[in-house]
Amino acid sequence: MTVAAATLSFGDVVARAHQAGRLVVQPRMGMSNPQTMRKGLLATRSAAATTVGTITLDSYTRIGASAEAAEAVALGMELNGYPLVAHDLATTTGVLAGVMSPDFPVQIRHGSPCPEPIVAALMAAGLHATEGGPVSYCLPYSRMPLVTATANWARSCDLLACLSGTGVEPHLESFGGCMLGQLCPPGLLVALSVLECLFFRQHGVHSVSLSYAQQTNAEQDREAVLALHRLAAELMPDADSHIVLYAYMGVYPRTPAGADGLLAEAARLAVRTGAARLIVKTAAEAHRIPSIAENVSALEAAATAAAEERLAEAPGKPGDTGIYAEAHALVEAVLNLDADIGQALVKAFRRGYLDVPYCLHPDNAGRSRSYLDSSGWLHWSRIGSMPIAETLRPPGSTELTAAGLLAALSFVERKFDEAGRLELPTSRALSAPGPNPGELRR
Amino acid sequence: MAAEPAGVLQPRPTALLPRPGSGGLSIVVTTVVSDSHTWNLVFLQLALEELGHQVRNLGPCVPADEVVTECLRSRPDLLVVSTVNGHGMRDGTLLIGQLRQRAELAELPVVIGGKLGITGPAGLDNSAQLRLAGYDAVYEDGADTAALRSLPALVRAGRRL
Q1: Which among A153, A286, A430, B116 counts the fewest CB atoms within 10 Å?
Q2: What is the dihedral of CA A437, A438, A440, A442, to 10 degrees?
Q3: Interface of B with A in 24-43 (CB under 8 A)
Q4: Which residues of A are less than 8 Å from B90 in CB distance?
């Protein structure tokens, strides 16, 4: 593992930048062609920003269908990510050689509910950072029973934890703060992020990051990220941990000014809330997989916005609408179900103590619903069996229609495009939104 | 509706409770095996239900054999495949191939739509290939809800009549 020996752990690199007052920015980037993947990593490293590298895997590898990935590679078909398991080890070490350096770690991003082969492959290639979680990579993106995904993730954590003591601390990021990308009220996002990190730590991975995806109202997001800090500090006071913010994951503005404005708001939110790392989004991603140059522009734009925000006056404390109390109630209820956090998560979903709105997975109770109010605040309209009735502001009675769903999914797009409406629309505007809102997720 | 047996192929109609049908079509909504997107499926279910159809939503990442089994079991009037992850050409072709191999499903009206390749709308090429593979209609990204309103006519005009 010569590559790993020369590399600081992912958590340390992010912590150092944070202490130095620099926001780490990171792309979502994955190409099936090894040469292109390498170019993407080199471009990320040399961007005018504090960056870490990303290799996003393709959909076949994510679902454990490496044979299909290998077949596609053999046929010369382009995949929507890097097929880490299908490519042989020499190919991957070739991609990484001279790219990874002590201050430029590379994180493997995948979305798999069965990540053991991925974890084994990344460790073999000298890598040590990845992301996901037993809930966040099962419920939204697979049909696998939660109990199976939890066992898979437990074994994968155990495997990754073997790197401890080799000179580099393995790092796992929970994707729990990004459930379905949109329309999940913040209290549940915060709770899931914390619970998954507690799961990672129970399985020996001690360097973790807690995620939160930018939602539809900046003030609500600020309160949510501060609640995430507070809950993490209370429940894992000794942890090597940081917060990673995701730029908005839903339908993106179609004007360049609107897209820039939304990304800048994400960067400002990161700085205002003490998040150490930001996953950027490019405007192109709503329509296709972005180019390397588009990724670099997004990284640099986010870094610039973050640097400007550091010079601005710090905002006052946000109000308390109960996000912390809601997240705390959820986490407490789950942890009381079983000393084994994986088992507790499975039981919690079975009882509906955790219930992700609009998630179609058979193990999600599916009795919760949410809606956006006119200023973009996310609220519960139904809480199902979640133990949050006492912390809840009176729930609304908004019944979701298809048109209402589209309006909610495009709230941010419309808001930022209106703000940037003096810009000339690009060719992107010629493509109607159609019935498929959302990003290209691998 | 009659109670249905539990099992892997019976994803509970979870997030979206079924609404009473009003004489519309019975429609299975699904995606392809590698596609993890949900919002397109949630939207389609709501929109089709509002048009009076009964919808069974299989959710994301459905293996082709589960789609086949579900169609054999529930014998819908129409199968709607929605995919946006860029693997629709390959996975969608494999799916329709498996469906059409079953004699019982040879005449089932099946449509596919979404972002079918990874480079954005590619015009006639993808559409023609998918029709050739066995789809009755192909909707590239950018199709609007008029396409949904045209589905009953497509089913009436379909192979089965």
Answers
A1: A430
A2: -120
A3: 33-43
A4: 72, 77
Contacts of A393 (CB under 8 A, 6+ apart): A321, A322, A379
- Which class for A328: exposed (0-12), middle (13-18), buried (19 or more C-beta within 10 A)? buried
Using the CB atoms, write b or e for B89-103: b if 16+ within 10 Å: bbbbbbbbebbbeee
Q: How far is CA A414 from CA A36, A228, B109, in A?
A: 34, 28, 36
Q: Angle of helix A411-419 relative to helix A256-273, nearest 10 degrees?
A: 110
Mapped onto helix, strand or coil, the DSSP state of residue A250 is coil
User: Torsion angle of alpha carbons A297, A299, A300, A301, nearest 10°?
Assistant: 80
Name the more confident of A349 and A284. A349
> Is this complex scored with an ipTM above 0.85?
no
Report helix angle A89-96 to A34-46, nearest 10: 30
- The encoded tokens of residue A7 equal 């590399």
**DSSP assignment of B97-148:** HHHHHSGGGTT--EEEEE--SSSS--THHHHHHHHHHT-SEEEETT--HHHH
Tell me the mean pLDDT in the region A182-207.
Answer: 97
Strand partners, B27: B55, B78
Structure tokens belonging to residue A90: 């020499």
The pLDDT value given to residue A143: 86
Q: Hey, what domains does chain A have and what are their CATH numbers?
A: 4-311 (3.20.20.240)
3-state secondary structure of B28: strand
Angle of CA points A179, A185, A187, to nearest 5°:
95
Q: What are phi and psi of A267, to 5 degrees?
A: -65, -40
Map residue A79 onto helix, strand or coil. Answer: coil
User: How far does the CA of residue B47 sit from the closest CA of chain A (Å)?
Assistant: 5
Q: Are B70 and B58 in contact (CB under 8 A)?
A: yes
Comparing CB atoms, the residue among A77, A360, A400 nearest residue B11 is A360
Calculated CA dihedral for residues A339, A343, A349, A355, nearest 10 degrees = 60
| Range B72-100 average pLDDT | 93
pTM of the model: 0.86
Integer Cα distance of B55 and B39 in angstroms: 15
C-alpha distances (whole Å) from B100 to each of A109, B74, B105, B160 are 36, 16, 6, 13
Task: Give a three-class secondary structure readout of A368-408.
Answer: EEEEECCCCCEEEEEECCCCCHHHCCCCCCCCCCHHHHHHH
Distance CA A257, CA A240 (A): 37
Task: Tell me the nearest-neighbour CA distance from A183 into chain B, angstroms.
Answer: 10
